[in-house]
Every structure is written in structure tokens, then in C-alpha cells.
Amino acid sequence: MEFSKKRRVQLSAFALIILLIAAMAIVREVRKPEPIPNYSISERSGETTVVIPSGSTGDEIAKILFDAGVVKSARAFFAAATANPKSQSIQPGTYTLDTKIPGAEAVMQLLDRERRTLVLLIKEGERTYEIGENLARLKFNATEIEAFINEQVAIPGFGEKDPEGFFFPATYNLTPNDDLSVIRKRLLSKFEATASELD
């Protein structure tokens, strides 16, 4: 009789342990974060042009890519960018990216210089006619390029001058909406800022 009572207590304790384990498993399942919506590499489909503005945060880039149909969710890109230290090197600019790709692939494509378009590189010592040739390669209008490289510029401290030597050498990431007047201002502003720093 005593043995039977002891046996019942043991069985009750065992059942309680099983119930506790089952309850913990249910709690873990409920608390488990939902999987991040993400494309697989086999779903890749077509290409699109994406503009990453200067000063964009990771969240903002993620939203831009989601809105453009590049990634399945902003979280997919953000998680991949957080896991990849090289993502800190993503530059602002205009990119040609595949659509419907995993977040990790989107990070890699943004790090691929070959996918960055509309890049105006002005090398040190480059003449204005060479800058004009670079702009022609970027498909700007020939008449507008002619005006761009020949019209005089007003630079504080220098007066009215030919633009030769005032278009500061650097890499300029352009966007599809940039016209030559906007680009001209950027180049001259860069020169003015640098000249001011050097006094």
C-alpha cells in the first residue's frame, strides 16, 4: 500500500515535470521572433536603378531598397548589413541593382563599384575639356557641356575667371536628377570649401 502511494507520488512528479517542459517549449515557441521575410537567390528578377542619398542611415537605405523591389523586407537588408562590417563602406550614389534578391546579396551589390553609375571622377591636373569628355560619357548634352566648361565662374577672392583649375578634383556621385548647373555648383563649392580651409 505504501509502495503504491509512493509510486503515485513519483508518477505525479514525473507528469508535472513533463508538463513544465511542454509549457517551456510553448513559451519558447511563442516568444520566438518571426522569420525575416527574405528572397532566395533563385527569385532574382530583372534590374532597377536605386539612388542612395548622401548621409543615408542603414534604416533609410533598407527602406529605399524595399520600396524599389530589391529586397523582400527592410529587415532583410538591415540584418544583413549589420552582420557585414564592410557595409559601413557603402557610398551614396546611383546604383544598378538586381531585384528580388536576399538582403546579403543587396549588401554585396552596393559594395560593388561596377554597379555604381553616374560617377564623375575628376583627377588632379585634369583640364576642363577632359572633364567635358567625362560628362559626355555620362550622356550629358553636348551643348550644355560646352557651356559648362567655357562659361566664366565667380569665385570669392578670385573674381570672374575661366573655370580652368576651379573644378576641384574628387569623386562626385551624381543622381539621375542632377543637371549640369547643379554639378557645376558642387564642383565650385568643393573648391571654395577647400580653399577656405587652407586659407
Instruction: Give me the strand/helix succession.
Output: HEHHEHEEHHEEEH
Shape: elongated
Number of strands: 7
Report the biggest beta sheet as strand number plus sense, adding barrel if it closes: 3 strands, antiparallel
Label the structural class: alpha+beta
Main β-sheet, spatial strand arrangement: 1-2-3
Task: Supply the key terms.
3-stranded antiparallel sheet, 199 residues, single chain, elongated, two-stranded antiparallel ribbon, 7 strands, alpha+beta
Describe this structure in words.
The protein is α+β, with helices and mostly antiparallel strands and 199 residues long. 49% of the residues lie in helices and 13% in strands. It is built from 7 helices and 7 strands. The chain has helices at 2-31, 58-67, 74-83, 103-111, 128-137, 142-150, 180-198; strands at 47-52, 93-98, 116-117, 119-121, 153-155, 159-161, 171-173. The strands form 3 sheets. Strands 1-2-3 form a 3-stranded antiparallel sheet, covered by helices on one side. Strand 5 and strand 6 (159-161) form a beta hairpin. Helix 2 packs across helix 3 (74-83), helix 3 packs across helix 4 and helix 5 packs antiparallel against helix 6 (142-150). The protein is elongated. It starts with a helix and ends with a helix. The mean pLDDT is 86.
